[in-house]
Amino acid sequence: MPESTPHQAFKVAAAAKISAAKSLARKLSEEQKAAAAAARAGTQRNANPGKAKELAELTKAQATDLAKQAAQADSLARAARKAEQGEPHVLELQRLKTENEALQRLVLQLASNKADAERRLAAVKDKFSLGVAGDSMDSSASADASKASRTKSKGEEASPPSLSTAEIQRLASAASAAGNRTFSVPEGRVAVGTTIRLYYDRAAGPLPAAEARPTIKVGWNGWETQQTLPLRRVASLEAGEWWCADLGIPDLLTRAEFVVFDEAGGVHDNNSGSNFVLELEGAVSEQQLHVRRLELFEAAEAARRRELEAEEGRLHQESMVAAQAASKAARTAFRVRKERAAHRAAALAVARRRRGLEDLTAAPQREGVYAWLGGEPRAGAHATLAYNLRAGPLRGRDSAQAVIGFDNWHLKGKTVVKLEPLSDAQVRRHGLSSGTWVAATVELDEVALVVDFVFCDERREAWDNNERRDYHTALAGAMADAELAARLARAALERDADAAARQEDLAAKRALEKAEIKYEAAKARRAAQAAFLYTRPTTPRAGEAVELLYNPDLTTLRGRPEVWVRGGFNRWTAGNFPPQAMRATGVGGFHATTIQVPRAAHVLDLVFLDSGDAHGGFTDDNRGLDYHLPVAGGQGALDPLRVVHVAAEMAPIAKEGGLGDVVTALGRAVQEEGHEVEIVLPKYDCINYDLDLKLVKEFWYNGVEIKVWKGIVEDLHTTFLEPCNGMFWVGRIYTEMNADRHRFGVWCEAALEYLRHHAEKRIPDILHAHDWQSAPCTWLDCGTARTAFTIHNLNYGADLIERAMGATAVATTVSPTYAQEVSGHPAVAPNHAKFHGIRNGIDPEIWDPAEDEFLPRSYSADTFTEGKAAAKAELRAKMNLCEADVPLVGVVTRLTHQKGVHLIKHAAWRTLERGGQFVLLGSAPDARVQAEFNALAADLARQYPDRARLWFAYNEPLSHLIYAGADMLLVPSMFEPCGLTQMIAMRYGTIPVVRKTGGLNDTVFDVDHDVERAAAAGMAVNGFSFEGTDGPGIDYALNRALTAWYSERAWWQEMTERVMRMDWSWAKPALEYIELYYKALRR
Fold first, then answer.
1. What does the record list as coiled-coil region(s) (predicted)?
2. Which residue of 2, 220, 284, 1068 is most buried, as measured by CB atoms within 10 A?
3. CB 652 within 8 A of CB 618
4. Containing domain of residue 33, as a range?
5. In this predicted structure, what is the pLDDT of residue 36?
6. CATH number at residue 464
């Protein structure tokens, strides 16, 4: 074996030390189990049921206590393991020290003879010190490898040498004569990498005779890993009761030992506490074992990563093909929507025109006043209009002109024609009455129904407009309404063709971007999971076997002696299978088993356990969500979820706060994952219903007529329920709290009545209620639907929220940190186990600097330098700030105490003292707070007239300009359930400076303090944060940001690009919500 490097020896020593301590812990655990089983068996033989029950309960309590102790020790070791990602030397030393101490405590707790355990631990330390002082030894990959099972041996696939019955009888007799209960074939030392046949004499040991089921448990490398095999009876052998089993010996071994136990009674034969030991030929030393394991682990890990990367490449290619198809479909869908919109607008225009003509008095002529010469005028033709100058207000004028229009003057364009005198012969030929007639030829519009006209003199001083009713004549041959609508639609499409082409390109581009975002979100989830769970092939295929690999060391099963898996398919709806044992692979801590995937499978569902008991012991169920692996090639299709949101708000049509944004954005994101989504909303009288809304039915509930309206809002099917009792005809969404509790309660009952009995589609799988307004839906009769409930604002309706928390299947709030912060609230605490924090997202199509109409120059992560410079210049011009090479700090917020108004004021002065510029957009609902900021604005204007500006009015374009033009955005909230401004700022390349609370903590990772936290979340550092609520607290973050801008400009540019590339869309949160929906369905 080649000489190891000092660094490798460092790793090997640590791995050996930890491995030996863990092995000893397992062995002591086995010994304690054997003692308990023997005592239990003895009690059973004495036929004392009471004593047996007492001992069984004691044993169970001991096992539970040991499990808790093991979990504590594993928790300490897991915490220390984080050091592997940090400073390599100092942190790894600390990790090793912590893990070793934890394992030593575990050994002592498991041992009945602590003095003996301490002696054995001391021997372990001496044996594996390798000249390294104390516990200060390095470990990385080999620590994982040291927990592995035996490597697969060539002998496992072979048979032991064949001996005659006489030869075997000779060996048995010799063993009996020597007082040995075991022997092996071939006799003598056991060669590694071979297969032997191991014999055991039950009659010579403590195992009971009645209904014996002897089983051998082999411990490889000091019980580091184990293997269990049933023994079979060998009736042909005499001088005892011999049983045997074929045992494959691994290639890489230092030690092999075994015990025999009876499965029926649990009695163990451990050779009087010394175990049965196989004398090995070709064994390696402890150091050689761990060096080799390190090599195997690194090679296997490299191969595993190549497999995963190859599959990821295939999935990316597949996603890009799908993205191109989605882009093409987006173009088609845009054209269809555009054409439908044009036809709908044209049909409405024709209908409005028809209604506008209903009350007109249209006549082909008026005797003695005007006439159309040559017959009735026809649409699209030329006709001659004659007028009698003596007939009215133009009497005495010697000339006149006519003003011509169409369809009661609604069609665009008016023409003025000069009327020329008619000769007497022309007057007689056309049968006109006596008078002074003048006439002109008029071109009639081909799409018009009516021609409109009035007369005036050439100076337009005298008018004949039929006493202000104008003159009108219906046109013959006018187009039918349908033909006219089609004609108008075509004209509109041709007129807007260039703009439509740009919009179509944008729709296609956004479809590609959305597909890429969804792929990256799924990729991140796969990468995080692949560290401890993956399959071969990497994507399972329906109808084929798949090898499942799982590393318990990185999960809640860390340190458990056994690993089992149970599972099912298609979200537990088909073909569930009971727990089956997983074998240690010998590499990287992974355990493996093979699963046959049914042909109709689309999803493989998994839960991992530490025993074959599906309802006891430790489990890894992914925090209650279980693990779900996609399966390719399944027959049929997996039914999509039907999700109905019952909510008081929906953006953009009924929006008071963030609730409306979440309902719309989450609904769209889940729908884009292939599920069916519907929104149920009150039909407020204050909504601008500029959509194709249809009344589809009415029903009665509790004596009130409920009208059901349907429409499409932001691509979501939306149902508006209108109780005809005036409850929602109040001119606004919210009124007074007590009144609102009553009216929204009544509306919830009506919504459930609609879903149970009057909806066109089936009862939803998931009914998602939001905040106190729709909380009653969780405890009222919602049929077979399961409920999800989201808390957006805990400041209102806490009693309703508390009741909803108790009734709902799953509950969420808008960020993980906020979920922790409110977990002790009386409305949440009793049901904290079902409560999950899921970050809100932003709409990347609305907040897109590459397509933002409010910016002077569009930009992306590749072109932000010029784009942000242009935005900054325009922002300064709008705010009357001077041009200077200084940082610009922005604030966009409501000025309330929740938003940290005292810190905002402090930050304004601090920014200016540091030479920066400060802008604010926002206003205060509290008059006293607004007065304070008015005074601040005046003070700043006096002292820093060209460096600070506060804008106290709503201004959407200005908010976009601040997000783009500022260098940093300040969000010092006292509490913030989620927050959107910090995510919008990063989308525009502006660095956030925030207080560590709620969603701000989940989205902003401090550049100096959150490197590890960001890595654990799969993110990178992206801003500056602070924890205090006073001036020094915010100064700590703001000063660091300002200093970095001044002194580290290149780094700042790198950070700007980094934050712009971060994904704050709804792609990841939607996947988390879908998992929770499926969890809710598991009753």
1. 93-127
2. 220
3. no
4. 20-38+64-78
5. 55
6. 2.60.40
Rounded Cα distance, 587 and 564, in Å: 18
225, pLDDT greater than 60: yes
Q: What is the pLDDT of residues 430-473, one digit of tens each?
A: 999 999 999 999 999 988 899 999 999 999 999 999 999 999 99
Alpha-carbon distance of 183 to 175, in angstroms, equals 7
Residue matched to tokens 């300490």: 76
Tokens of 828: 């949440």
d(CA 184, CA 315): 51
Q: How many domains, in total, are found in the chain?
A: 6
Collapsing DSSP states into helix, strand and coil, what is residue 203? helix
150: tokens are: 């035996």
CA separation for the pair 104, 22 (Å, rounded): 8
Residues 822 and 905 in one domain: no
Q: What is the CATH number of the domain that holds 783?
A: 3.40.50.2000
* Residues 192, 272 within the same domain: yes
* Cα distance between residue 116 and residue 134, in whole Å: 21
- 867 is a domain residue: yes
Is-contact 371 365, C-beta < 8 A?
yes
Q: Which residue has the tokens 């790198």?
A: 1054
Closest residue by Cα to residue 73 from 30, 2, 21: 21
Neighbours of 877 (CB within 10 A): 11
Looking at the predicted structure, is the pLDDT value of residue 492 above 70?
A: yes
Choose one of 250, 284, 318: the last residue of a domain. 284
Among left, alpha and beta (phi > 0; psi -120 to 50; other), residue 8 is alpha
The whole-angstrom separation of Cα 184 and Cα 197 is 6
| Mean predicted confidence (pLDDT) in 243-260 | 94
Q: Measure the CA–CA gap between 811 and 834, rounded to whole angstroms.
A: 6
Residue 292 lies in a domain: no
Tokens read off for 60: 């169970």
Three-state DSSP class for 740?
Answer: helix
The answer to whether residue 999 sits within a structural domain is yes
- Among residues 428, 443, 468, the one where a domain terminates is 468
pLDDT value, residue 158 = 66
> How sure is the predictor about 841, in pLDDT bands with cuts at 50, 70 and 90?
very high
> Could you tell me if 249 and 380 lie in one domain?
no
pLDDT at 48: 53
Is there a single domain that holds both residue 612 and residue 657? no
Instruction: Report the alpha-carbon distance of residue 697 to residue 757 in Å, rounded.
Output: 12
d(CA 1013, CA 1001): 10
pLDDT over 50 at 1079, yes or no: yes
The predicted structure's pLDDT at residue 104: 55
Q: SS3 for 98-160, per residue?
A: HHHHHHHHHHHHHCCCHHHHHHHHHHHHHHCCCCCCCCCCCCCHHHHHCCCCCCCCHHHHCCC
127 lies in some domain: no
Instruction: Give yes or no for residue 575 having a pLDDT over 90.
Output: no
The yes-or-no verdict on residue 111 having pLDDT over 70 is no
The answer on 615 and 568 residing in a single domain is yes
